[in-house]
Structures are given as C-alpha cells and as structure tokens.
Amino acid sequence: MKKIKACFCQVVDKYDYEPGFMPLAFPYLKSSIDKYNIEIEFTYTKSEIPDEVKDIVLISSLSQDWDQAIDLIKIARKKMPNAIIIVGGQHISQLPEQLPTEANFAIRGEGEVVLPELLIYLNQQNDTTDNYKKMCGLVWHDQQKGKILFNPPNKVNTESIPLPDRMANDGKKHTPYLLTSRGCPYKCTFCSSSAFWKNVRMFSPIQICNELNDILNIYPDLRQISIWDDLFIADKKRLYKLLDEMNKRQLLGKLAFSCNVRADILDDEMCKIMQAIGVGACGFGFESGSDRILKKLKPQGSISVSKNIEAVHLLAKYEFKIGLSMIIGVPEEKEIDVLKTYDITLALMKSGAVSATAYNILTPFPGTYFWKEAVNAKLINPNEFNWTRLKYYADYINSSFQDFNEWKEARIKNNSIYINENYIPEQILFKIMEDKDNIRSKIIKKNCV
Questions:
Q1: Which of 186, 400, 428, 432 has its CA 20 to 30 A from that of 114?
Q2: What is the spatial distance between Cα 244 and Cα 251, in angstroms, rounded to a whole number?
Q3: Average pLDDT of span 217-227
Q4: Could you read off the pLDDT of 395-441 as tens digits, one per residue?
Q5: How far is Cα 328 from Cα 34, in angstroms, rounded to an integer?
C-alpha cells in the first residue's frame, strides 16, 4: 500500500471557547489507524484547508458549524478534485442524509473501527467490490439510486481502543484532557451526547492508568487535568477500582483532577472517593431554580432544586471547587422561574460555596428531545435551516466574547434560535441576564479580593 497523505480539519467558530488543546477525536483516530499499520501522514488544522494536495481530507463538525463545514468541503473539492473527502462529527451522525455532493463518505458516530477499514479499502487500487457498503457507520452517495444511503453507527468496544496518540498534533504544545468513559446513563432532554454515544461504555482502571502514565511521560510538568466524561461518578465500584489501581501504580498525588458530577448520586462516600483519587474541582448541571423546569430538563433520577442545593453544600463541606451550569429559555419557562434560577445560584456563589456560574440559553440540537419538538412545531425545517442560528447559546464567559453586550449583539445579529418567545420574549430575557450578570461580576470581584 502507498503512503497516504491526509488532513484532519476540525471546524470551529472563532468565538467558541477554545482551550489549549485539540479534541481527542483526532488522536484516537490516529492511534486506531496506526493499529492497522496503515502508512499515513497527517496534517491537523482548524477551520482551514491546506494548499498542498492530500489523498484524504477528514472534516469534523458540530451542527452549529455545519454551514461553515459545507464551505470547507467545497473548498477542499476545488483544491483537491481527486481527493477522498470524509465527513464526521456530531452533525452528520444525526443527519446523515445531509452529506454534501462534494463529499465522498461520512462516518456516523465513532470512527475508530470504520475509518481504518475504509482507508484500507480505498488504498487497494485493484479492489472493484462494493465492500464499503457493509461497513457499520458509513454514509455514501448511491449514484445509481440517486440518493444517500447509510448504515447504523458502529458501537466501539472501549477495551479494543488503543490509547490516543497525543503526539499526533499540529506541532503545538497542548494542554491535555481525559476521557474515562463514553456516553451518559441519563437522557437529559437538552443534551445531544447520549444521541451520539448511544450507550455508556467505561474504560477500565488499567486503561485509565496506562493513559495517565502516557500523559505524564509527554507532559512531565503537568499538575492538573480535566476529566471530560459526561458523568465521571456514574459507577462507584469503578472509582474504588481506579483508586486501587492508581495506588498500585504510584499515581496518587501526581495530578489534580476536575470532573462532572450529578446531585442525586452524590453522598459522603462518593466525595471521599473523589478526594482520594485527587479530584479537586467539580461541575454539575444545576440547570434551574424551578422544580417544574428541572423535570422538563432532567426527567430521570430524583433531581430537585433542594437536592441540587444539598449537593453544593456537600461538595463545599469537602472543599471541592464548584462550578454550576444553568439553562434558561426553556419552553414554558416563566420570568419567575428564571429569577429563581439566578437568585438561588448567585446566593450560593455569594456565600463562597460556588466558584463559578454559567447561564446558557436552551438551544435545540439534532438528536435531542427539544430538537424533535422544534421540528414538529415547524420552528425548524432541517432541509432549509441556517445552521449558524444554533450558535452563541453558551454564557459569554465560556467564549471569546469580551462581555455580555458583545455576546448579546452577536446573538441578535446572528438571529440565534430561541424557542420560548411565547412565555418570555427574548428581549426581556436579555434584560434579566444583563442585570444579573452585573451582580455576578460584583460577586466575582469581591470574592477575588
């Protein structure tokens, strides 16, 4: 087989929060390709297509960046008319029927198995079969039928996934993060993660410790790392096994961790395990100060406002640094509900129990309950939708916007989608957010003194 020249392009918006690392999708794909001894030379880029000719162009995109991704696909096709263009990411996984004509294939869901299989097939120049049509997760154009065909996504066994190739980067030093599981056991109505991962699979404690050793070898000066699992504490027994394995491998105390938790599965025992592992900071979705709205957002489990407050005090008792994430602009949410959300969470912040709060406007992403509701209500036509309207939902503190007003004006100019106009007009919501942001800023300033 000849050596393949390829480019992995991650589509990002210039205002999105971009920490100092690349997404783990590329390093995982690179290590999985290497496992098959495929000779490949990768270039990694963000939102640009290189001038030099490539055999393969991989383009990954979220839904809010899909229009930008289409433009990049067209640029790639014009620059490299003979290249194979493969699309991946959240958007195409949920809406495979939107594969552009300029692209050859797409991969739905996880690509660690199907991408190497596809590359091997493409590199066998004498292969005239249609074996690619049997590959799980593959999307392609059927020229004879004149339509897009696709297979069900592949479910990757985490035990078979090699460690991500953290050296497969763009030549820059990146701050790493860690995934110890894929998927979430809960199906929150606003979250597209469950729709993408399909089911929960957890990496074993041995795998996790192998990866921690790998990270420390590459970044010997690293002192802390974020665990980006949807819910790191989902399995208490696994955490005990991880603690034991870290102790055996003399990894305890070498790194401080941050992770996501959930209020209704927190207890003293869980806090002690996290503390022993080295977790020093926790974030969780407080979401709302209204039990009525909480039930719409998190229908599973026993989440309530009182349970959320109890969880904050429990975490504070063990001196965890706490960050809360809230969602406002939920359908049928009233002004009094939004005010409760702000008043409760800002009071927790003022008390010193909570370090940071973020207030995000609910946005219906493909694959979620609210997406289906918006489509059924004809607020969205997936075939004629300006995908940039899904942008700028997140609190400006998690973006490169300088302040609330800049973020608000960007939303207005962008005509960002808002689906609770009948209960709280968006302009009134903006006024509430602006007033409360001033209070939050004063609390931050006071707490920093």
A1: 186
A2: 10
A3: 93
A4: 999 888 999 999 999 999 999 999 999 999 999 999 999 999 999 99
A5: 44
